[in-house]
Amino acid sequence: MSDSSSSGVLRNIGWLARCEPSPIQSEIQPLDHAAIAWKDGVIDWVGRESDLPEGLGDRREYTASGRAVIPGLIDAHTHLVFGGWRPDEFRQRIEGVSYLDIAAAGGGIRKTMRQTRGASEEALKAHAHSALAGMLELGVTTIECKTGYGLSFEDELRLLRVIRALDDETPQSLIPTLLAAHVVPDASECDADCYVDMIVERLIPAVAEKKLARFNDVFVEEGAFTAEQAIRVLKAGQALGLDAKLHVDQLGDGGGGHLAASLGANSADHLEYTSAEGRAAMAEAGTVAVCLPFASLYLNQPPMDGRAFVEDGVQVAVATDFNPGSAPSYDLPLALMLACTMSRLTPAEALAGATRVAARAVGESANRGSIALGMRADFAELSTDNVDQWLYHFRPNVCAATWIGGQRVHAT
Other C-beta atoms within 10 Å of 371: how many? Predict the structure, then answer.
């Protein structure tokens, strides 16, 4: 269901989370009996319904019917575009085969690489559109999309072209990230240093010239890339306008928090094993920590200590890491509940992590992530009383309506 008006008023909001910028993770500025007004897709008034100003009579009015309203959810870490699935590896891990052993046997990221390279662009788009439609029904309005399953000059560019096409075809906003440095595609043909040469000397310049990506990411881990190689890739991207992101400290403490801080990265993601020293460095640098509870759950790894990051002054985003191997779910509300139960964030902290902090992680905090003046009118109506009730009494989906740019693009 789509509503074509981009100016309007939403009344009868039972409980509203504004999620305006704050250094305190738990501060979401709740408001009862609220209303929101917007013009040309941008919020120009928010407050108690009893205080609605005069002069809005020419705008179409809508009712939230007493439901809760939150900013449109932002998934700050996905691998949206890929071919195929890997259910066999799910079973293997349960039987005790490790993530690294599966990868060494030809599975893992390289298996998805082969499936992705073998899929047509239309098949890849159809696969992604199915996920995007499901995300829209959950209230997800902005999605960061990483490459990383092409793993060659041409195939990584192809995935970025697919992401650009999807962005034109869906009401949601897609934020593209180059993750060519995911793993080495075939070490027998080209080792890690040779592959990094290609990324730095050919791929990053081509991506920057065509403006195909906003961010540049590297997986720093055993079986992937070293810190030294990551520095080379990320500095090459920064020199051409691609901001840095990192996958770090997922399977062990590799100093990823320090590395991300030293590079001024927008975010460092996973962080299951990051030390107190690494957290302190991230806090000082202002690098967002992205909590990915699905990956910890599916890989049977200790979860990221979200409580420690918050207490050490690091802003924490929560995302799905949607991918066919270690996080085959795009259910961001479920990830929020798991961030509470596994990573010890409060419901308010988790909500901030998928709205204003997530917006910061993807470089969009000036435009979205909050219900505030000047922000894009992206929000979701939830059939619940408040954020505590939502994430405590978890149900498959309580999103009754999703709004993007002041247009109702989904309703039950």
Answer: 29
* pLDDT score for 55: 86
Q: How many domains does the chain have?
A: 2
Does 301 lie in the same domain as 206?
yes
Q: Which of 296, 285, 286 is nearest to 318 (CA)?
A: 296
Question: How many distinct helices (H) and strands (E) make up the chain?
Answer: 16, 16
Task: Give the domain extent around 18.
Answer: 8-71+370-411
Radius of gyration of the chain (CA): 21
- What share of the chain has pLDDT > 70, as a percent? 99
Dist CA 97 CA 79 (whole Å): 23
Is the separation of the CB atoms in 329 and 77 below 8 Å?
no
* Alpha-carbon distance values, 51 to 12, 37, 45, 48, 54 (Å): 12, 12, 10, 5, 9
**57 and 192, same domain (yes or no):** no
Residue 377: inside a domain, yes or no? yes
Banded pLDDT at 2 (limits 50, 70, 90): low
